[in-house]
Amino acid sequence: MGVARWVAAGIAVVLSGVSLATQEVADPARNPLPNPNPIVIKDWGKLPGRVWGSTAGVDIGPDGHVWAYDRCGANSCDGSTLDPILKFDRNSGKLLRSFGGGMFAFPHGLHVDRDGNVWVTDGQRSKDGTKGHQVIKFSPEGKVLLTLGRAGVAGDGPDTFNEPNDVITAPNGDIFVSVGHSAQQPNPPPNASGRIVKFSREGKYMKEWGRMGSGPGEFRTPHALAFDARGRLFVADRGNHRIQIFDQDGKLLDTWHQFSRISGLFIDRNDMLYAIDSESSPQRHPDWKTGVRIGSVKQDKVLSFIPGHPAGNFEGAAGEGVAVDADGNVYAAEGPISRKVAEGGLTKYAKK
Fold this sequence. Notes:
mainly beta
């Protein structure tokens, strides 16, 4: 779709709360598509002595093992001392390490960098105002290495975030943070954000782009981030039901509409794109199914599809986060919508 058509439709899109892409693009998953990972393993990754709550974050470390977080047996870690950050053996699902207890209000985005460091965004303010609206970098052992944002302070300045959604690092170490969770609402609050903020590897503010909206380069909840092999930044613009692709200076390169209302993104070493939709429903995104849509970073085309869990409705129920290991196994981080039917915090989709 051309930029001019997006600009012309921008006002109508914002007022309706429905992306133009929804009105013009039919769900590719309604057609017969292959499912490359038909073996469903629910409740993968056990938590000894505790019950999984909700999550939206999962990633693969450089050693091949699986990292995730748990919202402390509930849908929040505010007031809890449980360790939310978790490392699992990729083969057995055994818990290998945990840390971060008492440090988060609402863990949201998770990224493991090339050195094995673990980055987590804290997307909400704690009740006592001492936590939240930050990005924290940990060593693989759980030592805090870097903090971005000011604890408990929501803002749109160079040193503050208002609901940071996700974080990712470029090959040179530059840090990108997507900000603004409430912008996807039909009537967003007046202070809702929608921006991408770029920092140096040392945490120095460099630049930012975007604002709340539905035009080119605008966002209604930039929920997830991923880089392809060319260094292009893929942004899951969830409330606008699209992917926006940028260079690392914020130039908009392309806009894709085939991958639905995306909560999580992952691009594997073969430049295959995995986009998980956890929110499509008659109210949010009618006539689209939840699940993982898979394609190449070369084109806006869905090639295969892993359906969500059966949930007694048309759309099903799927997780919010997605990651893929070197063998092609897909892991879904189950959020508040899918957690009950998934019977655990992580679901593993294996090949035959």
